[in-house]
Amino acid sequence: MAAFIDTVKDKFGIEPVCTVLSRFVWKIAPSTYYAVNSRPKAERATREELIEEVILERWYDPAAGREVYGSRKM
């Protein structure tokens, strides 16, 4: 939800977007949005990003323009 608000906040503002979302889609307060954005990233999320980088680095060969390894080798 916070990612969606990030995409439209420059055009509409955070509070109006939260009001419309709360009325029609999902209840979210502006304070919840601010809390989510001020919270530090979880250690697990940081670790998973690093693992994803390593896997993609080994899986995709930009010189050949294709995937190098299949699921068994990965």
What report would you give on this structure?
With 74 residues, this protein is mainly alpha-helical. It folds into two domains: 39 residues, no CATH class; 34 residues. It has four helices and two strands. Strands 1-2 form a two-stranded antiparallel sheet. α1 packs across α2. The longest helix has 17 residues. It comes from Kineosporia corallincola.
Return the domain count.
2
Give the SSE order as H and E letters: HHHHEE
Shape: elongated
Adjacency order of strands in the biggest sheet: 1-2
The assembly state of the depicted protein chains is single chain
Low-confidence runs of at least 5 consecutive residues: none
Distance between the termini: 32 Å
Whole-number radius of gyration?
Answer: 19 Å
Helical segment count: 4
**Share of helix, binned:** 55-70%
- Main pleated sheet: 2 strands, antiparallel
User: How many DSSP E strands?
Assistant: 2
Average pLDDT, rounded to a whole number, is 85
Q: Based on helices, strands and strand pairing, what is the structural class?
A: mainly alpha
What is the beta-strand fraction? 5-15%
Protein name: Transposase
Give the arrangement of secondary structure elements.
Blueprint: H1 2-12, H2 14-24, H3 30-38, H4 43-59, E1 60-61, E2 66-67
Antiparallel strand pairs: 1-2
Helix pairs in contact: 1-2
Question: What's the quick description here?
Answer:
With 74 residues, the chain is mainly alpha-helical. The chain has four helices and two strands, in the order ααααββ. A two-stranded antiparallel sheet has the order 1-2.
